[in-house]
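Milestone 3.1: sequence recovery, worked example.
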């Protein structure tokens, strides 16, 4: 097992073999198109075709016409690290592994991340796969683990490292290998589905083969509703309280926190696609014969439609459905009226719950003009999209940063909710702003608890407009644009040189045309 990552000259690689690390060829900096082509040539065509179908993007989209996301592998890594008795191992470039582990621990992971290092020689000779296989056998301890997850990053995927050839089980420990390249999976949110779907497929096949382990808390004596999507922790409990009077219970949330919960998730009356982009996971539930219900119980209209759809899917008598509606809808309407939101808002994010938050904002009284989500359009978000569009909200699937910024500049909102760069740009324009992931999606959204949950933070942010104006007036244009930073007058302030910018732009355009011509040969 290699413990370090030595640099092996290209000249020492075996004759006639290409390497994913050589020079400016197929390193992880070589560009998505080249790596995609290399991966297909290396035997990954089938998995990449499935990803293209599950997570579609516009094939003509350039780098500024598609969502910008952190490394998508973070999504799969996050799913593995949050599961009990599950080991997660990365196979990829050292810089990528460092960044992913750093981000994982930043978000609270308290578990080691495995890593199988490689160099040019071990990659092109197949030694990397043997190292992965050796590592998996070393780690497969049934006293510690139910499953081991191995994630191929960009370079091993492009080089065709065949994780599918690993044993499916070693000493009773399940082995799950997935390819999660940045050139095949558009966003880290969808990468959660890559691993969740692979685990559901494995669990479903185990159920078909024979008896499986019962959940830690035992089987429910009521029909259950499995929920898909990472939610605020209180939301599943709130949904459970809404379902209880109908004689049904809230089941597990996928991605699950334990392997045996996958069995309970599949053993349900219906599936609620709270986050609608989990295409691979939904495919496994459909293969198990489970009906899928889109949208979520957000706001008055959303809750009414969702309760009806869930009741129908679970064969609940209409009288019980109406009874629950009468109880819940009155409480939601009162909560919305008690905590109104006043102001124009633009909203964007990459979590997958953007349309749900948008519905709640509109019903709270906000003048919402734009909602952008990095996720694709699917049948399970159609009702939310139609509802928003009917109320004059522009819905942008696969939203890019440029589209989110353009919406903010066009509508000049009282509050911009978005990703980090959107928030930064808004504050530079003296527009109050909130980071979607930490300040909006980290709040209860469902049922009566969701009504009014956003009002305090949003109204408080809008009320801070005067503070931004005061700061803008005080600092003026100091440290903006080409002169960003703090500069002593005695040393001079940087001067803008538009002629240099024009020349650099011309050189970049020339290089882009050259690369495009080479790709066509």
């Amino acid at each position: 097992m290699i413990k370090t990552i030595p640099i092996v000259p290209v000249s020492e690689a075996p004759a006639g073999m290409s390497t994913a690390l050589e020079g400016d060829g197929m390193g992880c900096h070589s560009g998505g198109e080249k790596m995609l082509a290399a991966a297909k040539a290396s035997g990954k065509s089938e998995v990449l075709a499935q990803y293209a179908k599950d997570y579609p993007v516009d094939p003509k989209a350039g780098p500024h016409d598609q969502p910008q996301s952190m490394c998508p592998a973070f999504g799969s890594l996050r799913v593995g690290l949050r599961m009990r008795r599950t080991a997660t191992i990365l196979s990829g470039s050292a810089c990528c592994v460092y960044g992913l582990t750093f981000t994982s621990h930043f978000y609270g992971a308290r578990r080691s991340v495995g890593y199988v290092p490689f160099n040019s020689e071990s990659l092109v000779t197949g030694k990397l796969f043997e190292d992965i296989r050796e590592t998996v056998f070393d780690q497969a301890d049934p006293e510690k683990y139910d499953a081991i997850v191995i994630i191929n990053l960009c370079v091993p995927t492009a080089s065709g490292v065949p994780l599918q050839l690993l044993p499916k089980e070693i000493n009773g420990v399940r082995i799950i290998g997935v390819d999660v390249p940045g050139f095949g999976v558009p966003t880290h949110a969808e990468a959660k589905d890559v691993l969740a779907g692979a685990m559901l497929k494995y669990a479903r096949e185990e159920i078909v083969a024979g008896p499986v382990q019962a959940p830690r808390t035992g089987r429910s004596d009521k029909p259950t509703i499995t929920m898909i999507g990472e939610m605020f922790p209180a939301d599943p409990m709130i949904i459970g309280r809404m379902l209880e009077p109908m004689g049904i219970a809230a089941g597990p949330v996928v991605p699950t926190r334990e392997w045996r919960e996958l069995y309970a998730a599949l053993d349900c009356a219906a599936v609620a696609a709270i986050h609608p982009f989990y295409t691979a996971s939904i495919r496994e539930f459909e293969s198990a014969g489970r009906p899928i219900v889109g949208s979520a119980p957000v706001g008055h209209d959303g809750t009414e439609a969702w309760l009806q759809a869930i009741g129908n899917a679970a064969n609940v008598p209409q009288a019980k459905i109406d009874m629950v509606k009468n109880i819940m809808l009155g409480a939601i309407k009162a909560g919305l009226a008690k905590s109104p939101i006043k102001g124009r808002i633009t909203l964007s994010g990459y979590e997958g719950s953007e349309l749900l938050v948008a519905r709640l904002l509109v019903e709270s009284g906000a003048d919402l003009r734009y909602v952008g989500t990095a996720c694709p359009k699917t049948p399970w978000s159609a009702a939310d999209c139609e509802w928003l569009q009917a109320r004059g909200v522009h819905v942008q699937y696969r939203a890019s940063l440029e589209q989110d910024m353009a919406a903010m500049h066009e509508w000049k909102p009282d509050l911009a909710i978005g990703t980090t760069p959107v928030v930064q740009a808004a504050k530079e324009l003296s527009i109050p702003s909130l980071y979607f992931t930490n300040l909006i999606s980290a709040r209860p959204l469902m049922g009566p608890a969701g009504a009014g949950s956003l009002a305090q933070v949003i109204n408080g942010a809008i009320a801070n407009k005067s503070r931004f104006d005061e700061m803008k007036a005080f600092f003026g244009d100091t440290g903006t644009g080409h002169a960003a930073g703090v500069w002593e007058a005695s040393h001079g302030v940087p001067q803008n040189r538009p002629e240099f910018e024009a020349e650099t732009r011309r050189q970049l355009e020339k290089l882009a045309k050259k690369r495009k011509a080479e790709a066509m040969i």
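The chain is about 45% helix and 10% strand. Residues 32-54 form the longest helix (23 residues).
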